[in-house]
Design brief:
There is one protein chain. This protein has two domains: about 5-100 and about 320-375, Periplasmic binding protein-like II (D-Maltodextrin-Binding Protein, domain 2, 3-Layer(aba) Sandwich); about 105-295, D-Maltodextrin-Binding Protein, domain 2, CATH 3.40.190.10. The chain has helices spanning about 40-50, 65-70, 120-125, 135-140, 195-210, 220-225, 245-255, 265-270, 290-295, 335-350, 365-375; strands at about 5, 30-35, 55-60, 75-80, 95-110, 115, 145-150, 170-175, 185-190, 240, 255-260, 270-275, 275, 285, 300, 305, 320-330, 365. With about 375 residues, it is α/β, with parallel strands linked by helices. About 30% of the residues lie in helices and about 25% in strands.
């Protein structure tokens, strides 16, 4: 499968045609769920209204609440960054994976320097095993020779692919990093609400450092935490906040903190994204090109559910990239409303929605992911 990497947007440039004709009756839609996708949905709201005549409001309440709202039929569409596999899922609801982006490991440190963290180091920090910024493992990660991959891009900023769909490497670059880390406690900020971002983050931790992060993924960070989160050393040092904006806000107010969220939340709140190591030993920044390289190795089943390969050896892959699912109905009782939701799904995937702020950093879907998204959206509102 292929992913293009034009910054911001989740699009399939001109491959899905969205009608610009105004409908006879405008429809007001209500959505809720993952905060991961909220910046994109807010950026595309005005364009969708202009193109379709419809409007929508979206509540960034977390994937867990989005799933529950779907179960209770509260609203018209929902987003979740993790699969909805609970017995409460209604049979008419299905997953459409249509948005991709990196989860960034975000830090609040006084020095405006690049920071490098190996996967084992990240796991130990969030598991409570590493508690100081000048721990030997963090010092070793940041005082060494660093190799990065630079991709060949087209005039639009998309990463070029070879005949097999792999990103074309232009060159590699090597530099030596020096960083005197502060002798300060690390304040860990996690998502306290049910979160698909947390599910993906803890799945990644378990996948890349299974001897450290020994528990499986979960929407609840406290459930996935591999030891006793209420141990005396963790009280007041490992704290939670609701939604991506909540944890970014708290981390921005907390010197020497670390958290995880979609990268644009860090950009908005002045948090620095870490370069994180992959299976080749390279330290990679969470941008759309690196996520595209990683997601190109992912697999997708007939229902659109994505399985990631954290051990991929693709050069420059950022292995903490995820796909967010739109939860939608096969059959809407209100056919006019169902048609409007279908238009919205098409619009999110279109080049029109992609025309928003490139700083948002979402990944453009192409190839088999595009094909799957189109086939799943076609099932809507039967």
């Amino acid at each position: 499968m292929k992913f293009s990497t034009k910054a911001k947007a989740v699009a399939l440039a001109a491959l899905i045609v969205v009608s610009t004709a105004q409908p006879a009756h405008a429809v007001d839609l209500t959505g809720s769920g993952a905060s991961f996708v909220d910046p994109l949905l807010q950026a595309c709201k005005a364009g969708f209204a202009k193109a379709s005549g419809h409007s929508y409001v979206y509540s960034s309440v977390g994937s867990g609440t989005g799933k529950r709202n779907s179960d209770s039929q509260l609203g018209d569409f929902w987003f979740s960054d993790s699969t909805h596999s609970a017995s409460t899922k209604r049979s008419t609801v299905f997953h459409a994976p249509i948005i991709a982006a990196p989860i960034a490991v975000l830090v609040n440190l006084p020095a405006k320097k690049d920071i490098y963290l190996s996967t084992a180091t990240v796991a130990k920090i969030f598991a409570g095993e590493i508690t100081k910024w000048n721990d030997a493992a963090i010092v070793a990660d940041n005082n060494r020779s660093i190799t990065t991959t630079i991709y060949r891009k087209d005039s639009n900023g998309n990463v070029k692919k070879d005949s097999k769909g792999n990103p074309v490497v232009l060159r590699t670059a090597t530099k030596t990093s020096y960083y005197t880390l502060p002798n300060q406690l690390i304040k860990v900020v996690f998502r306290a609400d049910g979160s698909g971002t947390t599910n993906n983050f803890t799945k990644w931790l378990n996948g890349v450092a299974p001897t450290v992060w020994t528990k499986p993924a979960n929407d609840a960070f406290t459930t996935a935490f591999p030891s006793n989160i209420n141990a005396p050393a963790n009280i007041g040092r490992i704290v939670g906040a609701n939604a991506s904006q909540g944890i970014a806000t708290l981390a921005a107010k907390t010197p020497y903190s670390i958290t995880y969220a979609e990268k644009n939340w860090g950009d908005a709140y002045g948090l620095r994204a870490a370069y994180v190591s992959n299976a080749t030993g390279q330290f990679v920044y969470p941008d759309s090109a690196a996520v595209s390289a990683f997601l190109g190795e992912a697999n997708q089943d007939a229902n659109g559910i994505v399985t990631y390969d954290y051990s991929t050896k693709v050069a420059g892959a950022y292995t903490l990239g995820i796909v967010s699912y739109m939860l939608v109905e096969t059959s809407y009782a209100d056919k006019a409303k169902g048609a409007a939701v279908k238009q919205l799904a098409e619009y999110i995937l279109s080049s029109e929605c992609a025309a928003g702020d490139p700083k948002l950093g979402y990944v453009v879907l192409t190839g088999s992911f595009l094909d799957k998204a189109k086939s799943l959206i076609a099932k809507m509102n039967k």
